[in-house]
Amino acid sequence: MYCRTLYATFRRNFIIQLRAYPKDFFIGNVLTAIYTAVSAFFMYHLLFKGQMKDSFAGYAGTADYVSYVIIGNCMHLLMVRTLLNVSRSLITELREGTLESLMLAPFQRVQYFMGNMLQQTVTTLGEAAVMLLVCLPFGVRFSGFNGPAALIGMMLSLASYFSLSLILAAFMLYTRDTYISQNTLFAILFLICGVTFPVQYLPEPLQWLAQGIPVTLSLELIRNSTLGGMTAVAQMGSYIRIAAMSAVYCVVGFTLIKRVESAALEKIFG
Amino acid sequence: MLIAEHLSKTYETKDWNGFLKRKKTQIEAVKDVSLEMHKGQIIGLLGINGAGKTTTIKMLSTLLLPTKGHIDVDGLDGVKDSMTVKKRINMITGGERMIYWRLTARENLWYYGQLYDIDNKLLDERIQRLLDMVGLKEKQDIPVERFSKGMKQRLQIARGLINDPDYIFMDEPTLGLDASIAKELREYIRDLAFKRGKSILLTTHYINEVEELCEYVYVMDKGTVIVQGTPKALALMGMENKTLCIELHENHELLHAGLTEACMSIEKNCSIQWDSKNMTYTITSRRDLSETVTRVLLEHRASFRNFYHQEPSLEDAIIKLARRGY
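^ Those are the sequences you sent over. The predicted structure of the assembly is below.
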């Protein structure tokens, strides 16, 4: 079988997660996302009095702020968990004392990372589904849902998160840090990629920076397919852009990991 | 056959030198080490802490790239063909690392088997055989976190054999185990080499393991191999003096003066010690004094229980060889 490392890593992580992270971890993640959605709901109704600036609808493609934020949070949850799990995979092996035995084996790195990601995606999609269900009473509405476009958007978004996580993995492995690097990145991504407000409200240099991060485009794709009702054909240009961006990030990520791996192993095993 | 030729490993460390400057220092962990591993043979790699044993093993097992030198594994280059070489080697270390505590014993072996791309049917058979071999068949579905230290170590051995390697590197495999489990493990190791034809490189601080298992020994100090040979040959090399022991049946008052006079006449610096509790003479000298001592015993008609040359100890020899830098 071609994808044995992928499947084995997926299965291994799933078993470990079932045994090691019981339901309170799942609930904790869902709650964090729900709190953000609820705060958006109250901000919209109590602070904004249900009125958004005209420019918001122009930038966001919808006037429905609550749905805009909840979908943004769902994707942010997916992105954070993917980045966390894939990027930290090797460092976790090091901490659990299994990095040596792993590195002794002739396994495919791509499959190993994808196995980590796949398991995480399945779990996080479950969390996101629960989050959306809980958020229904707060007014989340998929006013313009286009299934095929959303599906393509989701696949490309996951690919882009994966590519981003490779770069973070190389950085984490080199510095052997998981806390400062990941939390700094998550804070930056939350602020500049359009999770809770359109990037057009940011200062121009930050807008340029946001356009260079695939997360921004991924949020745009998902919102266009779920709130804006845009078809896959209409979004073809964005699909190509995010695919190209992910490919570049992937190439850079794997090159960095390859270089960093031997240096990091030297630091660790030397 | 695995041949390592002129292996060296240099690390670069950076230390703060003042507030902003960093000073680079080169550390030569291993210098010009050459060794051979033959199938069905257990070889020992000995030395005090920091001698470079673990770094050498990590280079041989593809975890570290050598700065200089060459590793040949059955005609394959240990660096360029590392993905193929990895299929023929494995490593077993002491302690409780290298296994997933939240997986069961069977799940652990299954996962590693997948990484080595072993055919599923063959893998299932091998997992059962290995679990049987290490005595964990009955406990195969219990998460490893509930295992005792000895059970974890036995699972480590099974993990190290999952790819049926030809060359196995064992880095202090009995570290921290109680005597009975350590003995059991030594039996596994012996079977692996002598019955299954595996080639084993063993590092350990327990000299009795080396004497019991190893056919050939490399002694390292300060990153280099200072001496090599069979354990017996090494023990003799480290032995500067010959020690003769005579256990008497009863105390013999005139014997002491006779022995002292006879031995001193041959070697002035010899040492004659009397242990009145065990009624034993221990005579240490550079020359063999057994003939002289026998003559004195006969002259004094001294009755003795035992008369023997003390066997040279490998442990003493290694310490001495390392101390004098050979």
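The mean pLDDT of chain A is 87. DSSP finds twelve helices and no strands in chain A.

Shout if you want it in another format.
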